[in-house]
């Protein structure tokens, strides 16, 4: 009987399917397809990509009437992902209630059959006249040697060369005479660049045996543009040594051990990471290092590349498809033993893991917000557990949940309270925008901040201005009727991007020209309100025309090259004032920054989210940490309308422990994490009535379930963002202290999906949600 395979198909199916041996292929002759290979399989009337998870269970005796379809073809001869990671994929599918085939599609780079995956470089070499004969002839007869050689070659073959073929041969001989490669070859691309129509002629010369063409796979190098890396320290600080004295024995023990590295900004956590990774490599193991955003990966890239060179691989969505494929193959083959990347790097095909590191572990960016809604930090902890190795979660502002795990003894707490060289933490001044008088009320700057910027410029130092919104104006309002201009497809206001003269929706990408009429009353008196990074840049230039001002946000850094160029200019002192959004708030080390201005600290406090205060505290603490990292002390000015909010006052005092105690006291009576687990069930569709009806039916179903008593069911209610991309959105929240209860409730809803969901309504599960919008 043919071998049977368990295959996860790239389709929204909850389980796996069984297929038999391919027909009419090498595999059908007896060679079995190993687990980890990619295949193409029939599904209904179409062919889809599938992933072999191993041999399938034998068919039951009463299943003789079933027809098991054969695999159409094997796309990879060898595994494209390590079979050892299959239990990891299965766990993810079960925990996040997501089809396992789509889990694998998320985990893997582009399908191995995609044309863009492999970059092949063709090279030509002489055959009829080998190199040792050809080169002396060229050297002895300069000028006319090429013509003579072409004539000689033409006379030595039975077929007359056409004029175009003679020209191609002449071009080759000229190029070959200049080549100094040890393999005595000429790049085919170089020949085609000089003679674009030479392709068919070169092919003809190969057919005649005059030339030979060899192809080699090229690895695209994502490290082409390097940032300047700090040299290794001559001596570690006392706190670095103390932390490593605890951490390195755990690496040697090769056992699961979770650590929370709580270190103030500028304390040298990066060097701890580098030392721990080096220790793991020395023990013959591999290492995985995660950062929450591509921008942070770019900052750490130079440090890790300088230390580990060709052993380092990058994995994140900022790379092209081909680059990601090449990096994946380097890791899979064992050529790269250290992986650095954003959340998707948690799926890297590393084996023999020796350490897992999650930098800025508190960041919500570790959570994927569409498709497979996984948390990269949580999966990193799981990978370490499955690999029996330590995991280090690092942050200057740990998440409340992670710190609570330390208090409960689940994690080991490592602390670093001092900056490198013992620089003091910056002083923080709070400006109450509600009461302070301003000489320039038309600007977003208080007099205190303007004066501090002028003093910093006079001293030849750098300033950083932080505002957590991009664009020029965060909304456009009619001055006659008060209507706010909204996106046609979403229930959100349009943002003015003045440099593009357009109004843009940051959710669906809809745009319209900035010169527009009020859609409610037709008035042309429409003007912008609110602030964004583009406006702050313009006002900084207006205040200080002699200053060199730059902006760093997603609008100005479309590529890694642009981002790196701005950082390089900042490091070289060619920028006086840097304006930016979240991407400048963490990870940057510029010793010349002595002033940080937080233009508006209240951005996130009004969000309908139980983590609003935690995010505000973390963001303020992180951006505060950019100041005073050199020999000069730092200063921070925070502008706010809520100067007495505990997240702001405690960030001013650099007092994380007090913030944690305050936050825990608020969450415990409300039964929010870390005292419970959450699942958000989200409903969306173009027909609002059907979406509402479906949400109501699911809510009633859950409240009638036998396990409803072990949970709190909130809603359903319209989502705070009630419409996105023309779809109405509702949501329902389940809270429970038991993960098993949540899992069973979700499974019960999924089992009744067809009966509960109205036509055209999508239902999705967000386990451990980060975004309540």
Layout of strands and helices, then pairs:
Blueprint: E1 4-9, E2 17-20, E3 38-43, E4 46-55, E5 73-74, H1 86-95, H2 100-107, E6 119-126, H3 131-140, H4 145-155, H5 163-178, E7 186-187, H6 188-194, H7 199-207, E8 211-218, H8 238-253, E9 257-263, H9 269-282, E10 286-290, H10 294-308, E11 312-315, H11 321-333, E12 338-341, E13 353-359, H12 376-387, E14 390-395, H13 400-407, E15 412-416, E16 427-432, H14 447-458, E17 462-466, E18 475-478, E19 495-497, E20 502-504, E21 511-513, E22 526-529, H15 533-543, E23 549-552, H16 560-571, E24 577-580, E25 593-598, H17 612-624, E26 635-640, H18 646-652, H19 656-670, E27 677-685, H20 688-703, E28 712-724, E29 727-736, H21 739-751, H22 753-756, E30 762-767
Parallel strand pairs: 9-14, 9-15, 10-12, 10-13, 11-12, 13-14, 16-26, 17-24, 17-25, 23-24, 25-26
Antiparallel strand pairs: 1-2, 1-4, 3-4, 3-5, 6-7, 6-8, 18-22, 19-20, 20-21, 27-29, 27-30, 28-29
Protein architecture, described:
By secondary structure, this protein is of the alpha/beta class. The chain contains 22 helices and 30 strands. The strands form 7 sheets. A 7-stranded parallel sheet has the order 11-12-10-13-14-9-15, sandwiched between helices. Strands 16-26-25-17-24-23 form a 6-stranded parallel sheet, sandwiched between helices. Helix 5 (163-178) crosses helix 7 (199-207), helix 8 (238-253) packs parallel to helix 9 (269-282) and helix 17 runs parallel beside helix 18 (646-652).
């Amino acid at each position: 009987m043919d071998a049977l395979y368990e295959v996860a198909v790239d389709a929204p199916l909850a389980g796996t399917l069984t297929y038999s041996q391919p027909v009419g292929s090498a595999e059908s002759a007896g060679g079995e397809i190993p687990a980890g290979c990619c295949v193409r399989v029939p599904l209904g009337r179409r062919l889809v990509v599938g992933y072999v998870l191993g041999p399938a269970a034998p068919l039951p005796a009463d299943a003789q009437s079933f027809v098991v379809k054969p695999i159409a073809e094997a796309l990879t001869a060898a595994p494209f992902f390590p079979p050892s990671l299959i239990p990891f994929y299965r766990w993810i599918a079960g925990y996040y209630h997501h089809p396992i085939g789509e889990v694998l599609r998320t985990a893997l780079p582009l399908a191995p059959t995609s044309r863009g995956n492999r970059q092949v470089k063709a090279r030509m070499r002489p055959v009829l006249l080998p190199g040792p004969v050809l080169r002396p002839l060229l050297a002895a007869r300069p000028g006319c040697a090429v013509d003579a050689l072409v004539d000689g070659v033409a006379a030595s073959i039975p077929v007359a060369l056409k004029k175009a073929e003679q020209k191609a041969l002449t071009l080759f001989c000229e190029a070959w005479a200049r080549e100094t490669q040890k393999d005595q070859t000429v790049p085919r691309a170089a020949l085609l660049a000089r003679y674009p129509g030479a392709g068919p002629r070169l092919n003809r010369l190969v057919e005649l045996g005059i030339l030979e063409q060899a192809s080699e796979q090229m690895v695209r190098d994502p490290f082409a543009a390097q940032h300047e890396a700090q040299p290794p320290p001559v001596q570690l600080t006392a706190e670095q040594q103390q932390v490593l004295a605890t951490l390195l024995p755990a690496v040697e023990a090769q056992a699961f051990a979770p650590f929370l590295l709580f270190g103030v900004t500028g304390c040298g956590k990066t060097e701890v990471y580098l030392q721990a990774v080096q220790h793991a490599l020395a023990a013959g193991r591999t290492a995985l290092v995660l950062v929450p955003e591509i921008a942070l990966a770019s900052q750490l890239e130079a440090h890790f590349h300088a230390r580990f060179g060709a052993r380092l691989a990058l994995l994140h969505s900022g790379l092209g498809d081909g680059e990601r494929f090449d990096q994946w193959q380097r890791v899979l083959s064992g050529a790269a033993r250290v992986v650095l990347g954003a959340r998707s790097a948690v799926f890297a095909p590393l084996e023999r893991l020796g350490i897992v590191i999650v930098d800025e572990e508190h960041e919500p960016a570790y959570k994927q917000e569409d498709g497979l809604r996984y948390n990269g930090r949580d999966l990193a902890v799981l990978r370490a557990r499955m690999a029996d190795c330590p995991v280090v979660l690092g942050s200057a502002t740990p998440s409340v949940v992670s710190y609570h795990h330390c208090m409960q003894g689940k994690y080991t707490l490592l602390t670093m309270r001092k900056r490198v060289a013992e620089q003091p933490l910056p002083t923080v001044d709070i400006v109450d925008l509600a009461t302070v008088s301003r000489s320039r009320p038309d600007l977003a700057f208080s007099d205190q901040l303007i004066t501090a910027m002028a003093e910093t410029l006079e001293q030849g130092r750098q300033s950083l201005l932080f505002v957590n919104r991009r664009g020029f104006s965060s909304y456009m309002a009619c001055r006659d009727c008060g209507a706010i201009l909204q996106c046609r497809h979403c229930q959100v206001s349009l943002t003015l991007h003045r440099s593009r003269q357009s109004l843009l929706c940051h959710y669906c990408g809809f745009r319209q020209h900035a010169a527009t009429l009020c859609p409610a009353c037709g008035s042309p008196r429409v003007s912008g309100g609110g602030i964004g990074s583009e406006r702050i840049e313009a006002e900084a230039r207006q205040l200080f025309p002699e200053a060199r001002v730059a902006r760093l946000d997603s609008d100005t850094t479309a590529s890694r090259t642009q981002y790196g160029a701005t950082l390089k200019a900042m490091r070289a002192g060619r920028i006086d004032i840097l304006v930016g959004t979240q991407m400048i708030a963490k990870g940057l080390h510029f010793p010349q920054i002595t002033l940080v201005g937080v233009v508006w600290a209240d951005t996130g406090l009004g969000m309908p989210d139980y983590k609003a205060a935690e995010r505000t505290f973390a963001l303020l603490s992180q951006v505060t940490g950019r100041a005073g990292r050199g020999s000069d002390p730092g200063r921070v000015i925070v502008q706010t309308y809520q100067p007495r909010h505990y997240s702001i006052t405690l960030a001013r005092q650099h007092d994380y422990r007090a913030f944690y105690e305050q936050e825990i006291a608020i969450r415990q009576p409300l039964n929010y994490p870390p005292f419970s687990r959450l699942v958000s069930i989200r409903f969306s569709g173009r027909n609002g009535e059907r979406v509402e009806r479906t949400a109501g039916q699911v809510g009633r179903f859950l409240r009638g379930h036998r396990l409803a008593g072990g949970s709190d069911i909130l809603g359903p209610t319209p989502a705070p963002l009630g419409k996105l991309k023309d779809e109405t959105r509702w949501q329902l929240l389940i809270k429970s202290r038991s993960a098993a209860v949540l899992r069973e409730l979700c499974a019960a809803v999924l089992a009744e999906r067809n009966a509960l969901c109205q036509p055209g309504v999508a239902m999705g599960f967000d386990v451990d949600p980060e975004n309540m919008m």
